[in-house]
Write a structure and sequence with these properties.
This protein has about 260 residues and is mainly alpha-helical. Helices cover about 85% and strands about 0% of the residues.
């Protein structure tokens, strides 16, 4: 597994698109730090971009690399190596390479130019951590989509739809639900629906850390009221762990039965 992971990681780190992705975050972070000395504002601005961009890149880059490596995977599966080992090394290589891109692109400028107190640093690490978690979640989902769809067009279409659903459509449907059933108690339903979207979970966790109750929205307010700030944060971390685990385990289940 380690050799497969190492090869996948080294292959991806040499990819020009990943280098461009890293340089984008470097330029963005340096630009924001240059414009303002308020590191909390920089963290908020970064979160507004990364919480949307990281899932998109995780999905598209992951599924693109999966399809481009199909023959390589088929060759590996023909060797006396278990399918679980092959997939684990491959999928971790994708997730780690994209995570390193974000870590370098955002972390290096902060390390060089940042002079923040411990509260601002905690906010920065939370934004960085949530960006990496979302990258891993959607990179794992991209491999699941690739395993389910042999046709590249269908696979890319499904990946784009998944991103649109979680990043845009989901919130719109959520608001419509709250509007149409505003006369009914929706607290429990709100909690459940919020847990069903990793992007919303990451956003609410960051806003809870910033203690910006005015813009946390109804879901964040309900989460804080029912669970409290500390318990609410723990609950979000637990659910995000499930969001990482479920696509990974589902991909393992698919590859055991898939005919290459």
């Amino acid at each position: 597994m380690y050799k497969i992971f190492r090869y996948t990681l080294s292959d991806l780190l040499r990819n020009r698109w990943l280098i461009i992705y890293t340089l984008f975050y470097l330029a963005l972070t340096i630009g924001l730090l240059y414009l303002t000395n308020d590191f909390t504002k920089v963290a908020v601005s970064l979160s507004n971009i990364t919480l949307i961009l990281a899932p998109l890149i995780g999905l598209l880059y992951g599924i693109m690399y999966y399809y481009n490596s199909n023959e390589y995977l088929t060759f590996l599966l023909a060797q006396p190596v278990s399918r679980r080992t092959v997939l684990t090394g491959f999928i971790l290589g994708i997730a780690v390479s994209l995570s390193l891109s974000i870590l370098i692109g955002i972390g290096v400028p902060y390390a060089i130019f940042g002079q923040a107190d411990h509260i601002q640093l905690a906010t920065f690490f939370l934004v960085l951590g949530m960006s990496i978690v979302l990258t891993i979640v959607f990179a794992f989902i991209s491999v699941v989509v690739g395993l389910l769809h042999n046709n590249r067009i269908k696979g890319f279409g499904a990946a784009i739809f998944i991103w649109l659903f979680f990043a845009v459509i989901y919130d719109g449907l959520f608001l419509l639900l709250l509007l149409f059933f505003k006369d009914y108690p929706l607290e429990k339903a709100t909690l459940f629906l919020t847990m069903s979207n990793p992007i919303d979970l990451a956003r609410i966790l960051i806003l809870m850390k910033l203690d910006i109750s005015a813009i946390m929205g109804y879901t964040g307010a309900v989460l804080e009221e029912f669970l409290g700030k500390t318990n609410g944060s723990i609950a979000i971390f637990v659910v995000l762990f499930f969001w990482v685990s479920v696509p990974f385990l589902y991909a393992q289940k698919i590859i055991r039965k898939k005919d290459f």
